[in-house]
# Entry
Amino acid sequence: MSSAADDREADALPAIHGVESSSIAAVGYDPTTRRLYLRFAGSGNAYLYHDVPPATFDELMRAESKGGFVNTMIKGSYGYRRL
# Structure
């Protein structure tokens, strides 16, 4: 069961856009809250990463391999919550 805080956080997801990637289906980012939303291709699992700097999001969007960037620069570097 989700808490009221979780519900408010989920309601405030950033605008989400599909991306060209074999492992990442969609990305969203809110520079005000510094939250990064990722939905993975295949599994469909979605995660919200916290306190991600705007420059890191910009690098992700420019990365030739978005999945590789997420694996090396996002996972393990930022707190997250599975949605």
Remarks:
- The radius of gyration is 12 Å.
- The CA atoms of residues 18 and 34 lie 19 Å apart.
- The mean pLDDT is 89.
